[in-house]
Write a structure and sequence with these properties.
Distance between the termini of chain A: 35 Å
Oligomer: homotetramer
Keywords (chains A, B, C, D): NAD, Oxidoreductase
CATH superfamily of the largest domain in chain A: Dihydrodipicolinate Reductase, domain 2
Number of domains of chain A: 2
InterPro entries (chains A, B, C, D): Gfo/Idh/MocA-like_OxRdtase_N, Gfo/Idh/MocA_oxidrdct_glycsds, GFO_IDH_MocA-like_dom, NAD(P)-bd_dom_sf
CATH topology of the largest domain in chain A: Dihydrodipicolinate Reductase, domain 2
Pfam family, one (chains A, B, C, D): GFO_IDH_MocA_C3
Structural class of chain A: alpha/beta
GO molecular function (chains A, B, C, D): nucleotide binding; oxidoreductase activity
Helix content of chain A: 25-40%
Number of helices of chain A: 10
Shape of chain A: globular
Strand content of chain A: 25-35%
Chain lengths: ~375, ~375, ~375, ~375
């Protein structure tokens, strides 16, 4: 691990598309919002020299580079932030960890379990050397969801018996929407399952504090081919998926995801039903957490819309006065903060690569269940 | 007062239009839903023989009649339910009270203060004889509003400092909507003010438990003429109104009403802001009361949507299981119940004619303020 | 079939609990709200003489009786309205149909498929004689859901690819809530599945106009025993259930139901996602239909809250001015209207017993799938 | 005006509290999100050396300074961004304009009309020299409000007859909340009126495109004294205000603001009612615009929730995929973008100082009306 006492922590970011822009915003903002170790945006890495140079300029990185392996050898790089498509995660993350760098890897951890297992082995070794191997399930750091976790931990829901999660989008409603890497199995691993069910399942397990012990799943590809560069091309991943999960705390969770849910823009919803209370969340209104306290007198019960913008709420002391809401992007700043504090030794970081592997196994089990006509698959 | 021990209470209803239909539904339903003295729908009265005969058949009244004065002489009539336009209220109500009948009079009590004062004198004399003179501000008996009143009385809001009420409709948005009696001063007294601001102001005073001590008001007639039978006819009442009220408990209330509020169908909204809590209500979602408890820990505060369908809620024990919502009409059944119980001596009835007069004076003061360029008018 | 030209249609209602009260309200109200053939509430039938006599008085029926077989022999009875628990449906309905009566049978049609098949045979014979055999999936007559069906039929959703329905209640959250007939397999057939999933599945099939061709299902009994008269007693039905349905139009539907969904009071929700639009409905706000028109310019798209209270909306011309909302009970009046019009020959009635049988087969298939570890069961 | 072709535009920001932090975030972010001229955060200025040095570090400015007059003399400063309390605006802005700088001045323009007039004179002279004098009513650049303005301009509302705006907060509910500069007339000018009614009135005028021609107003100070450094100190500004405005297009607008509206966190709401449509907005859900199209068939009408996150929406092409919502702070980035583009000559900037003066006159008229017992004050 690099010596960080006398200079800022240097970050190298691999990838500069959607996630790269979001992570850049976080790295630019984190030290203004939070008390964290100093950080420097050293280098942004991509394959296309022209494009990555432009990205460096726009996103305000000191340098750009096209060879991520060379970047890993630099002494001024302490953190490697991996924002590439999933099929590149394993190779880069393992090399970065072996080079002694802290790693932040976007979800999903990998496209299959074998890769994920190799990554976990590398992370275990690195962690033993004091490095951090962090996984980017950023929604855990949406304040309302962090508050939800606090409520569950404080016992406000009692025993959770049922969970209901969905992640609905509609960007594939149009049958003429063209092919891209997210619709091919070899680059994306899976479709809606890996891309968005992964978030829904991570929230279910994280919020309840319960792990899946068995699953039943169904996948569907409703639009089986789409326009490619050379004419119609088969879609080789799912565009919708359904699952039920048995959790080790006795709860049953349902998960439904789709990229053809007309009118749903980015609708990750989670509902938890417990013996003492209930919670609801919708990512399209991310500043609200709906909480029902079933221990109140019946005549006063109902879902309370908590506007999660008070200084008493997670991460909010760093931002604006009450009622001045945050956007989708702020959770990335919270993630950068928590990573910097973890490197600084003042806190741990969750989720880690092992969490990512465990989640990958749940996704694989859903695929296996679907292939087995819906049979339960134990984890 | 009639002897009621050995036979059902006999009701005569004057008027059979919108309000007559709603009251009929209540009289037909009340004994099924609630434990009340037996009641008989004896006679429905109107000027048009054919139409009232048809109304009697449809609305299930035993008889119909065209001469309300003759009906008042019948011994089998105990209750006179006045559903006519406001300009007929005074004459009928006073005669009915003098004939020894209980009276339920639709709001507004009268079209002007002089009439209202005469009605109050008649009611005082009748009340001394044991009769009930009830005023039909039915919305007080919407369960969510009745619950709101309970919350205020229980101190859940602390000291109420500010109230904000509105009643917005849009049935006059179209400039070609034709003239009718509600748009002429001689029949309607006023426009949106008497028709709907009366509800908003009644709720403000009733819910807060505070009375207006002075008002400032503004009236407007945005569409000054409309198609009449003989060509364009001037609209002689307001179609929108605004007022602020100083209340005797120190609060200030705002009221805004309109018949040209595009998209508002029957949107009576009331918000109360107190030192310990707040309340919100919207008549377009009448089964919901939104309550904020400002004494909770800040991280848990927010408006709670209480779905007012529990047996613990006002009037609800008589209806369906929880979550099976009521409609607009049910409050009329609650009103009939409360009137029957009042007649039976087991409870009082509020509002009474004196409340109607007090409200009329507030409305008059708003008109006076508008005429005086917005000057405060004391009550 | 009875001769009905010269006298009102006579109704006999069997059962006087929750459903009996709701149906009574409908029979009392229908002729006031709608133009229908005259109808008389002749007799209410129950096993407990004292209780049924009291019900007759409260609910305003002419007579009461304890022997439903004797009632079927009366010439002045034209309609038999069956509001008993499901295990009595078959016997009564078949006898009533054989006695030449029109029958309205509450859902579920029967507790098992064999009974349902016998009922369908009886209904087919009766229908050939001109009788009506109607099934009470009353929610089809909630105006917002009737409007939803109109929108789908008019093509406003295009091809429906995905449906998402849930029916969540919370009356069994408390582990100490006592046993009752709804929790025993021998009286109730199934638990949440038959009671509420039946509604959700009926809506999915009715609204989409597509029928299930195969299902995968999961059942759970989260609280396995409850206090009985003689100590703890096993709960022998499901208290939550999940299913996915393949529909013959190519859509996939998910259904989730629970009686332990803390904070959900009567939350039947349905969402439909089509190539041209989407719909959402929630029974806790039954006057609202949310519609998204995906053919509008993108900048104007979104879910529109249609307040279903306009005279242009189904059933609404009979009720109150716009914005004056209906309650849960009004749909029963619509059902009574539609039945009377069907008897009068001016319209058909849907759903019928065959629909009930088809639905029963879907429910059975879900049970079978659960028993087969989630395997697909073809219909 | 400085020569900007060969180097970034240099910004000096005066003030580093709440507004300074929000503006810094915008200056750091603008070039990443939008194509704009290069910009450099040269110097942040404040009176307290230690605090401003720390702010420079945290907010990532190149330098800090304590003497704003000296900063105005620097050639590398092109833009002066004024984030101080209002009583300092006039002096700094006039000096900066006279020094040839572009100025962005936070709202309100000034604490009284005399100051505002002097500022407008300075701005007029500067504008003639090619400088920009921009006023920071940032909410005009919340995408949903910018979209609202587009809808009105496109005629989607027809003639707007009625507007209803409120800005409700609750940070002064507690009577023990201490005195600060915002509660003293000499530093703040007015209370809720200048601070938040200014926003509401700016929106009403901007969105409708109509200007106030006369007002009636009422002010109240509900908590007349608060804890000061030396014991109780009188509150010399309003904590709530109400007004009605006649607009030059024939509409009437109501405005209500409060700092004691329990449960309202930052609730700026605007509703517009026109002959062809209506709009609603709530700053606590700033990504939503609710639009009703009154030209649709009645059965389909209702308020549509437009989630303003599509690339077709104002400013959104620069941010994230659809459904990934923005926060309160992003509007400041939009403001910085528009200012840079205005300096670059590719667009104008609105509002300007003259708009601020016009608004100040409306605020003054409300105060005058209140002092005249609610009399109408012409503008």
């Amino acid at each position: 691990m690099s010596e960080t006492s006398s200079r800022p922590l240097g970050v190298a970011m691999i990838g500069y598309a959607f996630m790269g822009r979001a992570h850049s915003q976080a790295w630019r903002t984190v030290a203004a919002a939070f008390e964290v170790p100093a950080v420097a945006r050293r280098v942004i890495v991509g394959r296309d020299e022209t494009a990555v140079a432009e990205a460096a300029r726009r996103l305000d990185w000191e340098e750009h580079a096209t060879d991520w392996r060379a970047v890993l050898e630099r002494d001024d790089i302490d953190i490697v932030d991996i924002c590439t498509p999933g099929f590149l995660h394993a190779e880069i993350a393992i090399a970065a960890l072996e080079a002694g760098k802290h790693v932040l890897c976007e979800k999903p951890l990998a496209n299959d379990t074998a890769e994920a297992e190799a990554m976990v082995r590398a992370a275990e070794a690195a962690t033993a050397r004091g490095q951090i191997a962090a996984l980017g399930f950023t929604y855990r750091r949406v304040p309302a969801l962090a508050l939800a976790r606090q409520f569950v931990e404080a016992g406000k829901l009692g025993t959770i018996r049922q969970a209901k999660a969905a992640y609905l989008q509609d960007w594939l409603v149009d049958e003429e929407a063209p092919m891209n890497w997210r619709l091919r199995k070899e680059t994306a691993g899976s479709g809606a399952l890996g891309d968005i069910a992964s978030h829904a399942i991570d929230q279910v397990q994280h919020l309840t504090g319960q792990r899946a012990t068995s699953v039943r799943g169904r996948l569907a590809t409703m639009v089986p081919q789409r326009p490619g560069a050379d004419g119609p091309e088969p879609v080789t991943v799912d565009d919708a998926a359904w699952a039920t999960l048995e959790l080790d705390g006795g709860a049953i969770a349902s998960v439904e995801v789709s990229r053809l849910a007309t009118g749903a823009k980015n609708r990750l919803t989670v509902e938890l039903f417990g013996t003492r209370g209930a919670l609801r969340f919708d990512l399209e209104n991310p500043n609200e957490l709906w909480f029902l306290d079933a221990t109140l007198p019946v005549a006063e019960q109902g879902f309370t819309r908590v506007l999660v913008t008070e200084p008493e709420h997670p991460y909010l002391e760093a931002w604006w006065p009450q009622g001045h809401v945050l956007g989708w992007e702020n959770a990335f700043t919270h993630q950068a903060r928590d990573l910097l504090l973890a490197i600084d030794g003042s806190a741990g970081f969750s989720p880690d690569f092992a969490d990512g592997l465990a989640l990958q196994r749940v996704l694989d089990a859903i695929i296996e269940s679907d292939a087995a006509d819906g049979a339960s698959i134990a984890l």
